[in-house]
Every structure is written in C-alpha cells, then in structure tokens.
Write a structure and sequence with these properties.
about 260 residues; alpha+beta; 5 helices; about 30% helix
C-alpha cells in the first residue's frame, strides 16, 4: 500500500474520530499530553532544560558570552535562538544545515521571548554600543512525536529561568540570575474538519487543515502568532483558539514553571 493511500486512510480515520468527539490517543480536544520537565541537566551550560511532551523529547541549552550589540539597540543584550532537528529524532530529519521548518520554529520561539519582553535586555548592557551579553538558546530535538513547537517554547523559558549571567568567568563582576520578567508560553492548535484541537500529535499534524501557534504572556496578552497550512480559520474558531491557548498557557505556567 502506497504512502499516499496510507495518508488518506489515516486522515479519514482521524476525521471520523473527530466527528465522534474523540482523538486517536483518547484525549479530549482541549487536553495536552503528559509533560515531564527537568532543569539544570547540562552541567556546562548557563541554563538548561529537558522536556518530554507525550513522546516528543527536547533538550535546551542556554549559553551567554560577551559580544557586540545590534546597531539599532546599542543598550540591549542580544538573543540568538537556533534549533537542530537531529536525524535520530525522526526519519524525516536530515543531517546538515538547519532546514526551513527548523528555522521557522526557532523564530517563533525567539519572537515569543523577545516580543513579550521576557528578558530585561537593558540589564544585559555592559558598555552601550560596544559590549553586551549575548544569549544563545540552542534547541535540540531528540524525538519527534508531534508539536515540537510547544515543547521547544516551554523548554526554552524553563532553561532561561535557571540561567545565570557568568560575570566571574568573563571578568565582569559577580554571577547574577538572568533578569527574567515574564514567562511566554506557546500553545499550538490544529483545525481538523472544523474542530480545533490543542497539542497535536504527529498524525494530527500531518492530516490537519491548518495549524496555529499562539504565544501568550502572564497577563494574557499575545506576543506571537504563527499559522501554517492551506486551510483557513473562521473568526469564531480563531477566537476559540486564542481563548484556549491563553487558558492552557496559564495552566502550564502554574504547573511547570512557577516553582523553578
């Protein structure tokens, strides 16, 4: 049986389950898979986190070093976020330079952190226009079972919450905690046959009409949004997705981040 036929059969199966108000793994439409989150897992990093969302597994490391600020923000530190889709994580991933989907997911994670003002970048300025702290957020996908985006977002903010500015190592004074002032969380939803479902697994991602990621802050404001796929969301479904995303982000923050 060809992959195309298998794909059609899988889509029909998931669609028919949706019509009954069900999902393949037994979750409700607004239910996120189980999460296991651990921090300080990389000894040599300034901050780190390992996260397992369902069977999707992500490792995030944070490193800081002194560098030059961007010309348009001479008094602010710099954030650089990258993602590596390791071939060991999925037969679809290939070795080599980051592919388009990895770059896109890294940008969504980066944008949520940047636009939310999660880090007080002004406090990372050493000499305006000359030296600032550069934050490198490195995301490694160890296993892909769907929704890499949300696992990466949660893992990144958890790693940042544990991060230290290495002043002693760089001869810049004392070590201090990274100045965190918000905890943006991304929540991804898919539209399958007109129904919106949170935290899609790999099969749901592959058959959905469209996918939308919504990044929200502690006060419920939106700091990022990204849609992919050919399908369109009605205004009603978009508002439903935003409401669900903000509610789930609040629950994730309460359950997994506030004690870090």
């Amino acid at each position: 049986m060809s992959n195309e036929v298998m794909s059609i059969l899988k889509k029909d199966y998931i669609y028919n389950l949706m019509l009954k108000g069900k999902r393949e793994d037994g979750r409700t439409f607004d239910e996120i898979r189980d999460i296991d989150l651990r921090t300080n897992v990389i000894e040599k990093a300034e901050g780190s986190a390992w996260i397992k969302l369902g069977e999707t597994e992500i490792l995030v490391g944070v490193k800081l070093q002194v560098g030059t600020p961007f010309p348009d923000s001479p008094g602010e530190g710099v954030i650089i976020t990258s993602m590596e889709l390791n071939p060991i994580a999925s037969p679809e991933f290939e070795a080599g330079p980051p592919k388009e989907n990895a770059i896109e997911m890294a940008r969504v994670t980066d944008r949520g952190i940047r636009e939310s003002g999660a880090i007080d970048l002004s406090k990372l300025c050493i000499t305006e226009g000359e030296e600032v702290w550069i934050i490198f957020i490195d995301i490694h996908v160890l296993n892909n079972s769907g929704n890499i985006q949300d696992a990466s977002s949660l893992g990144a903010i958890a790693a940042l919450l544990t991060a230290t500015v290495p002043g002693k190592r760089e001869g810049r004074g004392e070590d201090i905690p990274l100045p965190i002032r918000d905890m943006p969380i991304s929540v991804t939803l898919v539209d399958i046959g007109g129904e919106v479902m949170v935290d899609p697994d790999l099969d749901e991602e592959n058959v959905c009409d469209c996918r939308i990621t919504i990044v929200s802050n502690q006060d419920g404001s939106i700091s990022g949004m990204q849609k992919s796929g050919d399908g369109a969301l009605t205004e009603e479904k978009l508002l439903q997705a935003v409401s669900m995303a903000c509610q789930k982000a609040s629950e994730l923050r309460e359950t997994h981040l506030l004690d870090i």
